[in-house]
């Protein structure tokens, strides 16, 4: 019987001690659930932990399942961060990627910094140019108010002020 279709009254309460066979059975279920979750897509350790806890496994079983999949190399936060950055660095700023990884994916800031140190630095100026083109920026007809709004939008996207001003200087000689 699949655990998702049982009624809440059928589930044992966490404070009850389970017999040894039930404990190993639940351990096996948690490991299988972890493998099934990772089967669909790569995830961080924090995301997997959250999914397993949502499936109402005890914290001990969750930690056991995570250790199990880690031992086989199915979960590796450093690999995940490297792939995430390499795939998205052409669309988003460094700061935006860092925030997504840290707050949405649950990756520690130290690991993100370590991966960025290993990767070659990316020039964000082409991304800024593409954003300006997308917004229809034309230096000869854009007024000061619109220019300031574009700068503010770029800063909110995580681009550095120096890069934004450098691109604007290149395109229209603005200072």
TrEMBL record:
Job description of the protein: Modulates RecA activity.
Span of domain RecX second three-helical: 76-114
UniProt keyword list: Cytoplasm
Gene it is expressed from: recX
Pfam families given in the database record: RecX_HTH1, RecX_HTH2, RecX_HTH3
Biased composition (Basic and acidic residues): 1-20
Cytoplasm keyword on record: yes
The organism's taxonomic lineage, starting at the top: Bacteria, Bacillati, Bacillota, Clostridia, Lachnospirales
Occurrences of domain RecX third three-helical (ranges): 128-168
Broad class of the protein's primary localization: cytoplasm
GO BP terms: regulation of DNA repair
Name of protein: Regulatory protein RecX
Signal peptide: none
